[in-house]
Prior knowledge:
Layout (H helix, E strand, L loop, with lengths): L2 H12 L3 E9 L2 E9 L5 E12 L5 E11 L3 H18 L20 H6 L10
Antiparallel strand pairs: 1-2, 2-3, 3-4
Amino acid sequence: MYQEDFDNQSAQEHSGDDVYSKPVRAGKRTYFFDVKATKNNDYYLTITESKRRIEKDGRFAYDKHKIFLYKEDFEKFATGLEEVVNFIKEKCPVQERVYERPQEEAPQVSSPAEEKKDFTNVDFDKL
């Protein structure tokens, strides 16, 4: 790495930009684990859950929820997370899930017969 790369990385860390990012895709959700730096070059973690949804007009929108986790809390957080994950694994074994789109989100698809109703039949050979 060149000196300018170190300088750019240091400037990036001081501005609060991402130092490292790990996206994890899980069905309709994506989890982002982002390491950021404070002005004092102290690192912290943000965990963002992003869920895609479809607006009534058909556009995509994203619901996002974020938590900030500071390094003094890492050990307690990891211990608590491990405890509840183990509890769930013991009490509720993994089951195959089939995700189905709710009926109101199903796209409207017209049949070829319906599509022909909207157009006038034109014989181009007679033109």
